[in-house]
Write a structure and sequence with these properties.
With 255 residues, chain A is mainly α. Chain A is built from 11 helices and no strands. In chain A, α6 crosses α7. Chain A starts with a helix and ends with a helix. Helices cover 35% and strands 25% of the residues of chain B. The chains are: A mainly alpha (255), B alpha/beta (242). Chains A and B meet through α1 and α4 of A and α2 of B. Chain B: This is Cu-processing system ATP-binding protein.
């Protein structure tokens, strides 16, 4: 298995898109940190960029890569290899490449400018989001054979996670504003890894005081060890489940 | 060596393979021919486990290949269109395959690799290669590990005449070693002096599976292309009368 991972990573790290992605993240991080006067503010500004860009690039790049490697995957399947081995290797390769690009592009500036709890949380969440959206991309591409439709599905999924979900949450929030829904909001935020990450990071910065009663509920939940453990588990599930569905489907797929 | 029993495969409503039963023996060089979309490539992919049939089974040396993967160690496959990771060099692709097959360097068959002059282009990236050169890489990989079974899907498509001859010589040499070779091709003149048996596929069914001699004797033709043309003509005539 390690061998295929090695070659997939070598292939990915030489890809121009990954290099440009790393460079853009690095330029953005450095410029944000030099513009903002405090590390905390820098992290918040960077947070919005990261939560927008990381899922989009992880999802789209993985989707395009998988469709372009269709023949290569066929070649591997015709070799004496297990199908699970092939699929796991591709996942690990993509996951390592995307999170490495993020760690270099955002991680290094964060260590240099904002080595705080919020900075560390930003790095962890960004890496987790990279893994999650690689996994979602694997699931989307294995289900859809046509490249154009597959990329369309990826963009829709990203729109859902990045924009539509928040719109629905806001709608619910206003509709049920007369009821005590704060605990429900915690559960609801778990349905979207981007939201979960945003809350996790914001709670490390001191702006959560401005979030009112909901912020206090969030703090009460995410601030405890138990809450953190549950959140971490949810993020791991977000990585594992789409991947698990995709591998089950890939094992029966006609290539 | 390979036995196919009542194999059926549907893509949606389309019957790509319709109750195919065939026995492929070692020491034979079998031409798999038929019109476009007659199920040749699908049959090959089923043998390689790349598609999962709806019903029927395939045995390789007596063992069912469903959910198996080790038997592919004994198969060299040259796809119709070999595509490789774009950023990898020829050398890396070869190394990766050697890693997968775990064969000692001394046991490798580097004949085609040297004959095609690939040793001089190890550092070239796959995306810069022409279709013909990719085809050479595919051919090289198929023969490199001395497999007992060779499955070549349109091997000469895109190769220049010189390389085609080199490849045909190599196929002839392998035939002497009691290997099973399956070739699909639309260039029947390429197959004429290579094959010993012919399988003709139409609409997902093998219309016949005969030795080349028997086929030529029956049709009274001296060349494979003429024999096939005659078979197709009589087949259409029969279809017409039915």
């Amino acid at each position: 298995m390690n061998k295929i991972i090695k070659y997939v990573i070598a292939d990915l790290l030489r890809s121009r898109t990954i290099m440009v992605y790393t460079a853009v993240l690095a330029v953005l991080s450095v410029s944000v940190f030099s513009m903002e006067d405090s590390a905390g503010k820098g992290v918040v500004s960077l947070l919005n960029i990261v939560l927008f860009v990381v899922p989009l690039v992880s999802l789209l790049f993985s989707t395009v890569y998988l469709y372009n490697s269709a023949e290569f995957i066929e070649l591997l399947v015709s070799q004496p290899l297990r199908r699970d081995t092939i699929w796991i290797s591709i996942f690990v390769g993509l996951a390592v490449a995307m999170s490495l690009a993020f760690m270099v592009g955002v991680g290094i500036p964060v260590v240099l400018y904002a080595a705080t709890a919020s900075g560390v949380m930003l790095m962890l969440c960004g890496a987790a989001l990279s893994l999650i959206f690689v996994s979602v991309a694997l699931w989307a591409t294995v289900r859809v054979r046509d490249k154009a439709r597959g990329i369309g599905l990826s963009i829709l999924l990203w729109l859902y996670f990045a924009l539509l979900f928040d719109a629905v949450v806001l709608f619910l929030l206003f509709q049920f504003s007369d009821y005590p829904i704060e605990n429900g909001m915690v559960a609801l935020s778990m349905l979207n890894p981007i939201d979960t990450s945003r809350i996790l990071i914001l709670l490390q910065v001191d702006v959560s005081a401005m979030m009112g009663y909901t912020g206090a509920i969030f703090r009460k939940f995410f601030g405890t060890d138990g809450g953190m453990a549950i959140t971490a588990t949810i993020l791991v599930l977000w990585t594992v489940l789409p991947f698990w569905f995709s591998i089950r489907f890939f094992k029966r797929k006609d290539l | 060596m390979i036995t196919i029993q009542h194999l059926s495969k549907k893509f949606g409503k389309l019957h790509v393979l319709d109750d195919v039963s065939l026995t492929l023996e070692g020491g034979q060089c079998i031409a798999l021919i038929g019109p476009n979309g007659s199920g040749k490539t699908t049959l090959i992919k089923a043998i390689l486990g790349m598609i999962v049939p709806q019903s029927g089974n395939i045995t390789f040396k007596g063992k069912d290949i469903a959910h198996e993967w080790r038997y592919r160690n004994q198969i060299g496959y040259m796809p119709q269109m070999g595509r490789y990771p774009e950023n990898m060099t020829i050398g890396q692709v070869l190394n990766m395959m050697k890693d997968i097959r775990k064969m000692p360097e001394s046991a490798l068959d580097n004949h085609l690799f040297i004959a095609f002059g690939l040793d001089g282009m190890l550092d070239k990236r796959m995306r810069t290669l022409s279709g013909g050169t990719r085809q050479k890489v595919s051919a090289c990989l198929a023969f490199m590990f001395n497999p007992e079974v060779l499955i070549l899907d349109e091997p000469t498509a895109g190769l220049d005449p010189l390389s085609t001859e080199l490849l045909k010589d190599k196929i002839r040499a392998e035939k002497q070693q009691d290997k099973l070779i399956v070739i699909t091709s639309h260039v029947l003149s390429d197959l004429d002096d290579l094959v010993t048996e012919v399988i003709y596929m139409q609409d997902g069914k093998p219309l016949f599976h005969k030795s080349l001699q028997a086929l030529k004797a029956e049709t009274g033709a001296d060349r494979l292309s003429k024999a096939i043309a005659q078979v197709m003509a009589t087949h259409e005539l029969m279809e017409g009368t039915l």
